[in-house]
UniProtKB/TrEMBL annotation:
<dbReference type="InterPro" id="IPR022928">
    <property type="entry name" value="RNA_2'-PTrans_KptA"/>
</dbReference>
<dbReference type="Pfam" id="PF01885">
    <property type="entry name" value="PTS_2-RNA"/>
</dbReference>
<keyword id="KW-0520">NAD</keyword>
<comment type="function">
    <text>Removes the 2'-phosphate from RNA via an intermediate in which the phosphate is ADP-ribosylated by NAD followed by a presumed transesterification to release the RNA and generate ADP-ribose 1''-2''-cyclic phosphate (APPR&gt;P). May function as an ADP-ribosylase.</text>
</comment>
<protein>
    <recommendedName>
        <fullName>Probable RNA 2'-phosphotransferase</fullName>
        <ecNumber>2.7.1.-</ecNumber>
    </recommendedName>
</protein>
<comment type="similarity">
    <text>Belongs to the KptA/TPT1 family.</text>
</comment>
<dbReference type="InterPro" id="IPR042080">
    <property type="entry name" value="RNA_2'-PTrans_N"/>
</dbReference>
<dbReference type="InterPro" id="IPR042081">
    <property type="entry name" value="RNA_2'-PTrans_C"/>
</dbReference>
<dbReference type="InterPro" id="IPR002745">
    <property type="entry name" value="Ptrans_KptA/Tpt1"/>
</dbReference>
<keyword id="KW-0808">Transferase</keyword>
């Protein structure tokens, strides 16, 4: 099976709509690898290939179970350990949303976490999914000093639950 196609199917099953393919996730977002394979018509080797070689490092396998590490729109939280963020992070958004974000701050909305990028280029790529992108610089160091908890989703994704407008500005 094509890795990109399987990764997209895994994303839907593990991040957004497990019931659609007959899966149940536990409170930590885990399901047996065998159950995922049966639900998606994939082999364990194909699933392991997506986990090991997927470009966004979205998944992990531990003790025969698999889960999406971040990006969930399901209830509950996939717990990830807190981490010290770099001094500056970036958030890509649409031109239509930027004024409200600068007024009200960043909130997870339908996801579990706000997604931030360590590079302006990655934030621009993410923001372009919503039309003409606007890039916000995040003073992550000051936000962390004030109590914001950051988590590392992968090499290109930092996560937090919310950010006050005081830590945001147009890049």
């Amino acid at each position: 099976m094509d890795r990109v196609r399987l990764s997209k199917r895994m994303s839907r099953a593990l991040r957004h709509d497990p019931a659609r393919v007959g899966l149940e996730l536990d409170e930590g977002g885990w399901t047996p690898v065998d159950a995922l394979c049966a639900a998606l018509g994939a082999t364990p080797d194909e699933v392991e290939d997506v986990v090991a070689n997927g470009s966004k490092q979205r998944y992990e396998i531990v003790d025969g179970r698999v889960r999406a590490r971040y990006g969930h729109s399901l209830p509950g939280h996939v717990e990830m350990p807190p981490a010290d963020p770099p001094p500056r992070l970036f958030h890509g958004t649409s031109a239509g949303a930027v004024d409200a974000i600068l007024r009200e701050g960043l909130h997870a909305g339908g996801r579990q976490y706000v997604h931030l990028s360590p590079s302006e280029a990655t934030a621009r790529e993410v923001g372009s999914r919503h039309g003409r992108p606007v890039i916000l610089a995040v003073d992550a160091q000051a936000a962390a000093a004030a109590g914001a908890v950051f988590r590392r989703g992968n090499a290109d994704t930092w996560l937090t639950e919310t950010l006050a407008p005081a830590y945001l500005r147009r890049a």
